[in-house]
Amino acid sequence: MKRIIITASFVAVAALYAAPSAMSAEETLGNVDRGRVIYQFGKGDDVPACQGCHAPDGLGDDNVGTPRLAYQIDTYVLKQLADFAAGSRVDDTMYQMNDISKALTEQDMKDVASYVHTLKTPYIGSNLDQLRRDGAEVGDPEKGMMIVEYGAADHGVPACQSCHGFNGRSAGRMYPAVGGQNYVYLQHELTSFRNGAEAYGSSTLTADQMASKEDNQRVNDFMGQMRAVAKNLTDEDIKNVAAFLTLAKPTTPGNPRSPSRQ
Predict the structure, then answer these.
(1) What pLDDT is recorded for position 18?
(2) Is 88 helix (H, G, I), strand (E, B) or coil?
(3) Please, which of 92, 104, 146, 221 could form a disulfide with 226 given CB 3.0 to 4.6 Å?
């Protein structure tokens, strides 16, 4: 039965990605109130409250490497939950998301995705000064801005905003909002995508490849697009991009659109 639920979840996500006009910006994937209960309080014995790791306001935590979920694109969150449940994405930081996602029904996933998208938490990125004091290697936001806005043509890196939009607010429902995301999480995921690219390129993995894949090789990107970019990022590029994006506010005077379904 669990396999049927997971497969159905993939079909639902694929249908949403394939039909961008199927939902208006006012519609939601699931029930926001039910999603709030799961997020804040959990469900049964197998699904702890999401806020335990991602914080009640959805800001996540640099100390444990969890991402900001507040205002994230709901269709993207749904896909990640489905991928965790199926094993095509592995949680190699807390080692909890795979088991938790398997315990969620398809409707639970939709409800949680809808709820976190409604969290209007202010865009408060990572405290880079504190991270430096704690010994973390932190990049240069100004250098990161150049890559986000213009790319790095000298080593084959396109502008991040081509897919992730102005200041990382998302340019389409298959692409996550990354502006205001936590520095530690951004650095980790960009590195994981690069690891996945080095091992498997940008292609879809076979069942045997998935079974032998290492945990720190992320390969669940939409059409292999992130791996195609990340393979050309240097360590410095990754730190610089993460430093800029964590400070980037998706809304500015004269450019007020917030992350939303496209």
Answers:
(1) 46
(2) coil
(3) 221
Confidence tier at 256 by pLDDT (50, 70, 90): low
262 within some domain: no
Both tokens of residue 48? 């702890």
In angstroms, rounded to a whole number, what is the distance separating the alpha carbons of residues 228 and 198? Answer: 10
| CATH number for the domain that contains residue 170 | 1.10.760.10
Do 164 and 236 share a structural domain? yes
pLDDT in tens, 165-215: 999 999 888 899 999 999 999 999 999 999 999 999 999 999 999 999 999
Q: Is 62 exposed, middle or buried (0-12, 13-18, 19+ CB in 10 A)?
A: buried
pTM for the whole structure: 0.89
- Cα diameter, the chain: 52
Angle between helices 106-118 and 74-86 (to 10 degrees): 140
Residues 28 and 135 in one domain: no
Q: What are the backbone angles phi and psi of residue 129, rounded to the nearest 5°?
A: -65, -40
| Domain, as residue range, for 29 | 2-118
Interhelix angle 141-150/235-247, nearest 10 degrees? 90
Q: How far apart are CA 128 and CA 116, in angstroms?
A: 25
Q: Do 112 and 20 fall into the same domain?
A: yes
